[in-house]
Specification:
- The strands form 3 sheets. A 4-stranded antiparallel sheet has the order 4-3-5-9, covered by helices on one side. A 4-stranded antiparallel sheet has the order 6-8-7-10. A two-stranded antiparallel ribbon has the order 1-2.
- The longest helix has 15 residues.
- The protein is globular and about 60 Å long.
- It has 9 helices and 10 strands.
- The chain starts with a strand and ends with a helix.
- The chain is of the alpha+beta class.
- It folds into 2 domains: 195 residues, RepB DNA-primase, N-terminal domain (Alpha-Beta Plaits), CATH 3.30.70; 95 residues.
Length: 319
């Protein structure tokens, strides 16, 4: 495993994540890691930790004010222990305590959920890579200047599209697994999330942006605010049953996530319901109870908004 060196004290060789079996040592290391990632954020900004309960799949999102970083982070990590929760962080700052794209502030980072792509094939080379499960990685790039959120998103989108990362993971609202946490997905044997590459030197080169979509980020669309509690899932299915493709009906009625590609199944349900005439709230009510959405995103209302927003916008051809 790579030796982690903090941003502020990289010359001193301060090492963390030395003993992944020791919970207290890991919490100390996670606090230092998060302090380093968020060290340049301005006073009055917010960022986020997220936790998904292993036994229930319930997701909780916690806004953390700049002035509360030192106290809130260890408290939240203690109250959401890694043995019982999947633990996540957002690398980017926000102007309000809501993890929504319209509040995203300038950031020095690029980010990517690499999935099973080769982390060594990315150009430029990432500053930080951590292994989330067998053959799967996530990464951050620390640029040598700060970019507006929509500009940073374009670099992140280019990294994912050009090198085989998650094509849905480039929003500034993206949550990533915290190093030192435990991946509780049932197909794995609860591996620790381990740092494999660490080099906090600022990166001067940039990935080439994708042609024709330089600023085609979701902020160009009007925001929606889905309420997943206004409709009953079964009533929605009954209302649009005859207009839905059989596969979509099966996915909506699923009690367990059997298909390996969770994102694709969520996409199919949004497309099918939208084409059948369902409203955003109706689609949200279906996804909120669906095992494919819960297994992929947890009980994350912001991500529910983002996914419905993104897919419908794509279907309608909005840039």
């Amino acid at each position: 495993m790579a030796i982690y060196k903090t941003r502020k004290y990289s010359q001193s060789g301060a090492n963390v994540f030395r003993n992944l079996e020791n919970d207290e040592d890991v919490i100390r290391s996670q606090r230092l890691f998060l302090r380093d990632v968020w060290s340049d954020f301005t006073y009055g900004s917010y960022t986020f930790l997220g936790f998904k309960k292993v036994t229930t799949g319930k997701w909780t999102d916690h806004a953390i004010g700049h002035s509360d970083l030192l106290s809130d982070v260890p408290n939240l990590l203690h109250h959401h222990p890694r043995r019982d929760y999947d633990q996540y962080f957002c690398p980017n700052p926000f102007s309000e305590p809501r993890r929504k794209q319209q509040y995203a502030l300038p950031t020095p980072f690029g980010w990517c959920d690499m999935d099973e792509s080769d982390p060594h094939a990315y150009a430029p080379r990432p500053s930080l890579v951590w292994k989330t499960s067998p053959r799967r990685y996530q990464a951050l790039w620390q640029w040598d200047k700060i970019y507006r959120a929509n500009e940073a998103e374009q670099f992140s989108k280019s990294l994912a599209y050009r090198h085989g990362g998650d094509k849905n993971g480039w929003s500034a609202t993206k949550m990533l697994r915290i190093p030192g946490s435990v991946n509780h997905k049932p197909q794995y044997d609860e591996p620790f999330v381990k740092i494999t590459i660490c080099d906090w030197c600022a990166i001067a080169s940039r990935p080439q942006t994708l042609e024709g979509i330089r600023y085609s980020v979701p902020t160009a669309l009007p925001a929606i605010d889905v309420d997943p509690t206004t409709h009953d899932r079964n009533a929605v299915l009954k209302r649009y049953f005859k207009s839905l493709h059989p596969k979509v009906r099966t996915l909506i009625r699923s009690k367990k996530a059997y298909e390996p590609d969770r994102s694709a199944q969520v996409y199919h349900m949004i497309v099918g319901l939208h084409e059948a005439g369902a409203t955003s709230d109706e689609i949200g009510s279906v996804l909120w109870q669906n095992p494919y959405f819960i297994d992929k995103y947890g009980r994350d209302a912001n991500r529910l908004n983002d996914e419905i927003f993104r897919v419908i916008g794509k279907m309608e051809g909005r840039k």
